[in-house]
Amino acid sequence: xxxxxxxxxxxxxxxxxxxxxxxxxxxxxxxxxxxxxxxxxxxxxxxxxxxxxxxxxxxxxxxxxxxxxxxxxxxxxxxxxxxxxxxxxxxxxxxxxxxxxxxxxxxxxxxxxxxxxxxxxxxxxxxxxxxxxxxxxxxxxxxxxxxxxxxxxxxxxxxxxxxxxxxxxxxxxxxxxxxxxxxxxxxxxxxxxxxxxxxxxxxxxxxxxxxxxxxxxxxxxxxxxxxxxxxxxxxxxxxxxxxxxxxxxxxxxxxxxxxxxxxxxxxxxxxxxxxxxxxxxxxxxxxxxxxxxxxxxxxxxxxxxxxxxxxxxxxxxxxxxxxxxxxxxxxxxxxxxxxxxxxxxxxxxxxxxxxxxxxxxxxxxxxxxxxxxxxxxxxxxxxxxxxxxxxx
Length: 392
Description:
InterPro entries: PDZ, PDZ_6, PDZ_sf, Peptidase_A2_cat, Peptidase_aspartic_dom_sf. The structure is a single chain. By secondary structure, the chain is mostly beta strands. It folds into 3 domains: 9-148, Cathepsin D, subunit A, domain 1 (Beta Barrel); 162-276, Acid Proteases (Cathepsin D, subunit A, domain 1); 308-388, PDZ domain (Pdz3 Domain). It has 6 helices and 29 strands. The strands form 4 sheets. It has a 6-stranded mixed β-barrel with strand order 4-5-10-6-9-8. It has a 6-stranded antiparallel β-sheet with strand order 2-12-11-22-23-13. The protein has a 6-stranded mixed beta barrel with strand order 15-16-21-17-20-19. It is globular and about 60 Å long.
């Protein structure tokens, strides 16, 4: 059987590589694309998705896209399936590369609210089609994405690079590596390579009876999937091996068993909070992941030390509202409440901060005190101090 041609290609013949800038917001890779010559639109690059998504339903009318087959989409979360429909023959341009006729699923409702989560207008997700078309080299610190022709790509020779085999199943990439859950229990586990996950590591305890949630853990809302909020626990594993590099005291999500769905047997996923600590070469054409540590490699893995979940809103996504407050957390003790709007942090107006910068403040240092000015839903202004505390 003849191999299907790649979905993306260089705009000019004989081009062998191209560089595209990206923004790294909340551990997610955001690129600007043109759709049918219009845009630019902001899309997340996600190895964890096998078909690209348009998450902003209004784009269908804006671009004049015709509905085709209708689907019921099942994903992570605790709610029912989501309706989506297919559109095809969308021309996608990313810098100097394009997909002349790419298919998308258009969600009937923007349930992911990527814009509110990331803190900038978001329109969709580019999945495996791009990764199957090129060798991608990702520079997390400089915000550059290199796209290389697989036939002419030259493997870097530095001994600092480590190569890990990838297995492609159902349009997604999987790798097997060793995780030490504790000092005496080491297991070889299979993970999805998931650049669209903002966490470091997720373990699905139902996938193996030897996997258990650690005794030291924190009940938390882990994120949002296609089918609603994902609940579970935050804990740590002793270490994880990635090629010849070992990462220690790794912050790990343990989603509730009934909220995880997968077509391919696996034990969890590796997200970009871990991957951003490396220069990365994601090479689907040659079935490998290559990495070498960057200056973030030794940064500790920290969970939110305040106990709030934020949502960005407003015309420029620079208004920050508290979605929920963890019971007994520093935020709870300081009197913060759901629906409060944070106006300033340490006398810095939040309108001048990105959501990523806000998140970093609340992850910053155990024992640090933050002075907040908040506005209640009834308009009352309140000043309070939160002392951050490492909870896990």
